Prior knowledge:
By secondary structure, the chain is of the alpha/beta class. It is built from nine helices and eleven strands. It has helices at residues 17-21, 40-43, 46-51, 53-68, 74-86, 100-104, 162-171, 190-196, 223-234; strands at residues 11-15, 34-35, 38-39, 90-94, 109-111, 114-121, 127-129, 148-152, 174-178, 200-205, 217-220. The strands form three sheets. The protein has a six-stranded parallel β-sheet, with helices on both faces. The protein has a three-stranded antiparallel β-sheet with strand order 7-6-8. A two-stranded antiparallel sheet has the order 2-3. The model has no long low-confidence stretch (mean pLDDT 93).
Amino acid sequence: MTPGVAGTPRIVVLTGAGISAESGVPTFRDAGGLWEGHRVEDVATPEAFELDPDTVQRFYDARRRAVASVAPNPAHAALAGLERELGDDLLVVTQNIDDLHERAGSTRVLHMHGELGRVRCVACESRSDAPGDLLPGPACANCGERMLRPDVVWFGEMPYGLDEIDVALAACEAFVAIGTSGAVYPAAGFVLTASAFGAETLELNLAESEITPFFAESRLGPASLLVPAWVDEVLGRRR
Ligand code: APR
């Protein structure tokens, strides 16, 4: 996450696992509540980490390696292109812990659920770039303890940047959610906040989500097609 990135943009885009699906990153809920064969509660809670840190580390190490081997798709590229035109008037808030937005060229990205590529030291709380695999356990560059954990937000933990996001949602003219099921709060409630403050709301998703009824407009289809088409619309381009 880049602190202070949010400001008061005209457009806030919220992305979820669906935007990375066509890059080959599995979504969370499309496989019957399993996350690559693991129950989410077994790998994404502080309790799971306390009980069995090696399993949790192994899981995130595998995901970090998997994400390194895939590439951004046209949906990520279209949002990076939109940022090149709009600058500070666009903010991407992502629930994704991959770095595909950045690799496509986006710079104004707020990772509310943390980042696979970052680590946090349980001993001294310092945060830094991941030095590669966290198993068997590299030492913290700051305090020397071998207590690094992925800098991702687990269930029961506070997402990053919520104050900044609230300011952006209250200020924006348009709120667009891409590829998110609306199953996890507070992100699922952003559409209500934005529309309460008068923003137009649009959902782009492969299928109807739990929050579809809250949007003024919902378009169904793959992100790799819907997002470039929407960006063209915003920029007044013809296809
Ligand atoms: N294009 C557009 N949308 C898609 C595509 C696609 N190609 N493929 C799947 N989707 C949609 C699905 O229809 C679904 O609504 O993406 C959504 C994925 O939903 P989830 O797997 O629940 O992912 P997400 O909403 O990002 O999950 C939120 O839950 O487990 C936590 O912290 C984790 O950030 C995650 C949060």
